[in-house]
Amino acid sequence: MKTLFEFLKNPFYRVAGYTSLVWGVVGIVVSTAIAFLGDIHFHGLLHYGGAPNGAWWCFVVEHLVVWLVPSVLIYLSALFCSRSHVRPVDVLGTVAFAQLPFVLLSLFMALPPMSEVATIQSAQAVDALLTDTTWLLMLVWIGAVSLLLSIWGLYWLFRATSVACNLKGRNLWIVFIIGAFGGDILCRYLIGLCY
Question: Using only C-alpha atoms, what is the Rg of the chain?
Answer without folding.
Answer: 18
